[in-house]
Specification:
This protein is mainly alpha-helical and about 80 residues long. Helices cover about 60% and strands about 10% of the residues. The protein has 4 helices and 2 strands; from the N terminus they run E-H-E-H-H-H. The chain has a two-stranded parallel ribbon. The chain is flat and about 50 Å long.
């Protein structure tokens, strides 16, 4: 089973989420945008959900493992 992930464009989510690729982004405080993404998602082919889930998994696996995060922190610390 999968969850529907919708985030607002508020800074960091845009670094992780690519709209309609690995979940969904909407404008902050935009009810119309939220309504449209939910309607589009419901009417969208359910087979596409597997693609989005796989894209999300790949995004996390390729960018947000402990080793990758540790290396980013370590490199930032060493720059100073």
């Amino acid at each position: 089973s999968s969850d529907l992930v919708i985030s607002t464009k508020s800074g960091w989510p845009e670094d992780i989420i690519e709209n309609w690729k690995n979940w969904f982004l909407i404008e902050k405080e935009n009810i119309e945008d939220l309504k449209n993404i939910i309607i589009d998602f419901i009417t969208w082919k359910i087979s596409n959900l597997d693609i989005i889930n796989q894209n999300w998994y790949n995004t996390v696996k390729n960018n947000y493992t402990w080793d990758i995060i540790w290396n980013k922190i370590y490199n930032e610390y060493n720059k100073r």
